[in-house]
Specification:
There is one protein chain. The chain has nine helices and 14 strands. It has 302 residues and is an alpha/beta fold. β4, α3 and β5 form a beta-alpha-beta unit. The longest helix has 20 residues.
């Protein structure tokens, strides 16, 4: 398997090392517009080759990625302080369009990580002309992981034992789906020790997690690196995993021509199928609002 990563800042570097440690690729190609950065990262990572599954790490341009099984877009400016992800759109939109144009005719999977990831996924899809199911954003995979971690801490359980999802925008309008959350087949709202009054506070913790991290260390990178490597592994190894990724929707739950996260079956070819979870009326309204926020953000670009 061959994987390319575009953008070797904090996030791109974390994606690279997580991808190596999971043994996803046999060849990893790194690219950055800053001269020497990708070469330096490739050299540094290659020196650790005794400690991860066999993989050749090299620097190269997008032309060196044309035969890759997957290309990851991690280039762009990250957020600062209380800056929303959508506020990054104007600066990062041209990156998405430029990369998309260079990926016309690409035969592999495109994974978008750069924020605001939903609109960036839509821009890459439009500029590349690729089928929407082949351009997949990490979406709310990280938000879902954060929700499960917080719930696990609240209930004294391993996060992997929690079945709960965040849908919609990877951002301030995201929707925690409380009505379908469960533990071992038991509804979360029926679980011993659970109180529905916890929900608003926990949703707020999940929504503000990135702001809290950025205020302390300047960026979020390690968890999204792990998320991206997990997504690549699920797709390229044919795991057919259900993940909360974002793509331009084409009718699922009534959504069209907007990229947002819904539970999706991810395969080597991209999103094979989008699932339609049952939501209560408040969740459905919140998801419609999230879609409208994303539609407006895309429309504002012209």
């Amino acid at each position: 398997m061959k994987v390319g990563i575009i953008g070797m800042g904090w996030v791109g570097a974390s994606v690279a090392i997580a991808t190596l440690q999971r043994g996803v690729a046999r060849t990893l190609v790194l690219h950055d517009v800053k001269e020497g950065l990708a070469e330096g990262e490739a050299m540094d990572l290659a020196h650790g080759s005794s400690f991860y599954p066999t993989c050749r790490v090299e620097a190269g341009g997008l032309d060196a990625m044309q035969d890759a099984d997957a290309v990851v877009l991690a280039a762009g400016r990250g957020g600062e302080g209380d800056e929303s992800r959508l506020s990054l759109l104007a600066g990062n939109a041209e990156i998405a369009r430029s990369v998309g144009r260079q990926l016309r005719g690409f035969g592999g999977l495109v994974v978008v990580v750069t924020n605001p990831v939903d609109v960036m996924t839509q821009l890459v899809t439009e500029a590349s002309g690729l089928d929407p199911w082949r351009v997949v954003g990490t979406g709310t995979m990280l938000d879902t992981a954060r929700l499960r971690q917080v719930l696990g801490a609240q209930l004294g359980l391993d996060a992997r034992s929690i079945h709960a999802q965040v849908l919609g925008e990877h951002g301030d309008s995201e929707v925690c789906v409380w009505s379908r959350a469960s533990i071992g087949g038991v509804s979360l709202r029926q679980y011993p020790g659970w109180d529905p009054s916890f929900e608003a506070d926990i949703a707020g913790q999940v929504r503000r997690a990135a702001y809290e991290i950025i205020s302390r260390k300047g960026a979020t990178n390690h968890a999204i690196g792990l998320v991206t490597a997990f997504l690549l592994e699920a797709a390229l190894r044919g795991g057919d995993r259900v993940l909360t990724v974002t793509r331009v929707q084409s009718g699922a739950m009534g959504f069209r021509d907007v990229a947002l996260s819904l539970p999706s079956v991810v395969t080597h070819a991209g999103v094979a199928r989008v699932l339609e979870p049952e939501l209560d009326s408040d969740e459905r309204e919140a998801l419609e609002h999230s879609a409208e926020v994303l539609r407006k953000a895309r429309a504002d670009l012209g």
